[in-house]
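note to self — DONT lose this again. spent like an hour looking for the file last time. sequence + predicted structure for the chain T wanted, 322 res
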Amino acid sequence: MPKKIIAVDHELASDFARHMKSSTPAEVIKTGLDDLDNLRTRDFQKLLENCSNSLLDKADSRNGALAKIPPENRLTVVGDLHGDMDALLDVLTGSGFYHNRDHRIIFLGDYGDRGRDQIGTYYLLLLLLSHFPEKVTLLRGNHEAPREMPFHPHDLPDKLRWTFGSKGNEVKEQIYDLYDSLPIAAIVPGHYLMLHGGPPSDTIDEDEIALAPKRHPQTKVFEEILWNDPDEEINGTAPNTRRGVGKIFGKEVTNRILKAFSVSSIIRAHEASPGKVNHEGRVLTVFCSKAPYHLRQGAYITVDFADPPLQGESLSEHLTWF
């Protein structure tokens, strides 16, 4: 995807510099929440442009669409948000990220659609990404799928038009451009593989994931990463009839992927079943959006890399319920 050349707007640059003076996640979040009371379209667009270009620059140095996260300090893994601002704030404060710049956090996709605070959720996530690009990772979920891979519901465009008026469609296209710059999976070497749906059924090396968006739709790797679900009744794969796209994958697929990538567990999202464990503890589902799904609890996980790689009960014991 070619990089865009952005004309410098000095007034906008000055506004953005005001944000950059904030030095802690807590200050950035407070600034973002204050901004939401009177969010200007051009500020939101500028933030989208900055993040998209920064992500494209990072793609040049990482392995394509596969992000690598070093096993340092602590990492919080966050499942679907779907515009649930309360859930996002609960995670940011409860995980310890709020006050700690050394704490890394990764979001596994599905940021908009369904929820009441979709624009605010995007704005806070993008602010954090812009301030802490080495500590914050956003992955692509099935609600950030390419245009030719439709999904439902998709009411984010309506929210954008309601919020930004005549500029709503323009902002929507910028958000779609942002999707194209997001990684689709992340690996902590020796520890965890993280993605939205599940591992693709025939993948044997990192390059197949890293190059999946470029090879789409000639291969199904990209589609499966966004849409696959684990199943206990099969070993290989079967059509994902519940969703109508992607596959369900069994323990045999999980074990092969873990061996190929030299990791202990897969952490994924995609199902409104927070804390679900599959395949003898080798697959953990985290899901954070509560209000849009009428869930009483969501769950995220925080791991400390001073500990050995976790799986099974030892992995699920690190879940935080909220």
